[in-house]
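Reopening this one. Same input as before:
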Amino acid sequence: MKNTQKTEKNKKDFRIKGRMCAVLLAAALLLPCFMIPGVFAESGNGTVQTETESVPASAKYGKQYKKKKKYKGPSKWKKSIASLEEKNSTDLQGRIIFIGSSSIRKWKSLETDMAPLEVINMGFGGCTVNDCVYYADRLVVPYDPEAVVFYAGTNDIAFGYSPSVVYARSVDFVNYIHEALPDTPIYYIEQTRQPKRNKYWKKMKQLNSKMKKYADTDPLVTYIETRSTLNTKKDKARSKYFVKDKLHFSKKGYDVWASVIRPVLYEDLLK
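Same output, byte for byte:
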């Protein structure tokens, strides 16, 4: 009788220990999932999916800028990027994408200025070249553009990045587009002298010079020179081409910009 009771007790203990091991094993397997943000988020239809966005390849491409007092990184533009994606459906394939800083974003007459060429304005805020590389997989690649027109760099210089660093990041942008969209031509608009940023002009000219030399070695990159048209004979910025903030183009400024950029695109892309 005692042996029977002892056997039953051993079986019970074994079953309890077995259950405990199963619970501990399940916890060990599930723990990493709870440590990863977004795992086990349930969608409306009951399926399990992640909440966090996967980081696009362009966000990891090349060497990102080190943060500075005036520049805290690409995350600043999350809402702007989402807004651009919402506004521009990826059904708009094969158009010409203009990407860059506020000079592109504020170009309200871009579509009419470039007509009959079809364009998409992907300018955002006071972005840097670094931001353009970071978000290329969201603002450029999904649209399989006929061409990419790129203008950024003045903010980078003003934020304290050297011409060499901005140049290297600009080449990163070009190379990433080459890898993601082989044979897609890129048009680089040179940096503009802005009255408010006269003290940075020497560095901007250095950046322009570096990009001009680079474009001469890459058959898919065209350097668009605007300086001789926008500036005076003494290479000074013309105030009439800028609004009161002395940083952004006026209507006259955009008219001049268009008069230089449009013929280059027409010659290459108008069929």
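So the earlier flakiness isn't reproducible anymore. For the record, The longest strand covers residues 96-100.
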